[in-house]
Write a structure and sequence with these properties.
Helix content of chain B: under 10%
Strand content of chain A: over 45%
Strand content of chain B: over 45%
Largest interface: A-B, 27 and 27 residues
Largest sheet of chain B: 7 strands, mixed
Oligomer: heterodimer
Structural class of chain B: mainly beta
Largest sheet of chain A: 6 strands, mixed
Number of helices of chain A: 0
Number of strands of chain B: 11
Number of strands of chain A: 12
Mean pLDDT of chain A: 92
Shape of chain A: globular
Low-confidence stretches of chain B: none
Chain lengths: 113, 113
């Protein structure tokens, strides 16, 4: 079946540090890949997405590259801010049939000043 | 103007009661979803509707019954509430059924005592 594995959190960083949150997936066919972010007390928001191999999604300084050979979609940011503190979810969606997002378990990021 | 709204935001009730959560989207989307997020932040899809028709029904107890009176609304009714139903329930919508961004509501925190 389809599944997403994310690194355990929390990830604790100081402001301006480099961020990597690992995400790997298992899927039949060629899924689309997403990163969603959940700020405290809010619903999820799409952060970025990639729909085919070697695509790079980017938004708000965050980037992730769809790596088919390693079945990975790691999230990176060069310099985090306190306002980036949130829970980050990696997700996949198969590109056939009706869309069903399969989420990873989420990684909490805590950024201190 | 809120894109995906849910009511109520908080719901506290006793075991055995029946309750409903309402969801509305003003994005003109054809597809709507219900997700359950447990205490460990794990998100799992429950149902999906496309043009008022049920297209995804995960292994959810029969006590949960979604209803879509029109494309803009997807309500969730829960009978005979149990302690294990305590969670945050998110409604979402998307403009299509394959690889489209999903827009999430703010969530309804259900507490069963």
């Amino acid at each position: 079946g389809n599944s997403v594995t994310q690194m355990e959190g929390p990830v604790t960083l100081s402001e301006e540090a480099f961020l990597t949150i690992n995400c790997t997936y298992t899927a039949t066919g060629y899924p689309s890949l997403f990163w969603y972010v959940q700020y405290p007390g809010e619903g999820l928001q799409l952060l970025l997405k990639a729909t085919k191999a070697d695509d790079k999604g980017s938004n708000k300084g965050f980037e992730a590259t769809y790596r088919k050979e390693t079945t990975s979609f790691h999230l990176e940011k060069g310099s985090v801010q306190v306002s980036d503190s949130a829970v980050y979810f990696c997700a996949l969606s198969t590109n056939t049939g009706f869309q069903k997002l399969v989420f990873g378990t989420g990684t909490r990021l805590l950024v201190s000043p | 103007d809120t894109a995906v709204s849910q009511t109520p935001k908080y719901l506290v009730t006793q075991m055995g009661n029946d309750k409903s959560i309402k969801c509305e989207q003003n994005l003109g989307h054809d597809t709507m979803y219900w997700y359950k997020q447990d205490s460990k932040k794990f998100l799992k899809i429950m149902f999906s509707y496309n043009n008022k028709e049920l297209i995804i029904n995960e292994t959810v107890p029969n006590r949960f019954s979604p209803k879509s009176p029109d494309k803009a609304h997807l309500n969730l009714h829960i009978n005979s509430l149990e302690l294990g139903d305590s969670a945050v329930y998110f409604c979402a919508s998307s403009g299509g059924t394959v690889a489209y961004e999903q827009y999430f509501g703010p969530g309804t925190r259900l507490t069963v005592t």
